[in-house]
Design a protein that fits this description.
alpha/beta; four-stranded parallel sheet; 48% helix
């Protein structure tokens, strides 16, 4: 039996920006874009990260799970790494152990040229490109303009599944905790 926890990063600066602009009826356009890999957590996101650390630690303690039998996988993007680091203040995993890995394949879905741009702006400013990207009606296969579809993400995540199986056999892993992103976690569930 292998228990797998998929943890989405805490509230990020871009999550907060989107919510603020939405509440003010302002559309997010190219002028507000933040480089995806460098997006950090808000104070609320830090608190959420510490809270998930307490909840995961409680699960491990209550179920008598040895940390040596727990595998931790982390996205390289700042908000996911920070979520792990704040959660780890409570969890106390050794970062230099062979049970904690930062895996590039856990990075968020690449949205390409439309990264962070609201749908209404995509439709209005990039009408032809947007329509071409929407032709396939099954969203799992829908490409982003110069980016990835969810299917592309699922395909790259197959290596994570293989990695988990390999390490699990070597170390008798009972629990896997993955710190990543919303769409990555969705695709991990599909896999």
């Amino acid at each position: 039996k292998l228990n797998v926890f998929l943890v989405r990063h805490g509230e990020s600066v871009s999550n907060a920006l989107r919510a603020k602009l939405k509440s003010e009826n302002i559309l997010l356009d190219e002028n507000q874009v933040i480089e995806d890999a460098k997006i950090d957590l808000t104070e609320k996101g830090i608190a959420q990260s510490k809270d998930i650390g307490r909840k995961l630690n409680n699960y491990l303690v209550v179920n008598g799970i040895d940390k040596d039998k727990t595998l931790v996988l982390v996205s390289p993007y700042q908000r996911a790494r920070a979520t792990y680091e704040y959660a780890n203040e409570i969890l106390q995993f050794e970062n230099n152990s062979d049970n904690v890995f930062v895996l590039n394949v856990l990075r968020e879905q690449a949205y390409g040229a439309f990264h962070m741009i609201d749908r209404e702006i995509k439709k209005r400013k990039y009408e032809t490109i947007y329509q071409n990207c929407q032709k396939n009606t099954i969203s799992y296969y829908k490409p982003q303009f110069l980016g990835e579809s969810p299917m592309d993400v699922s395909t790259r995540l197959n290596t994570v599944t293989d990695f988990i199986e390999k390490i699990s056999k070597q170390k008798d892993i009972q629990t896997v905790i993955i710190f990543a992103h919303k769409n990555v976690n969705k695709c991990m569930l599909m896999n």
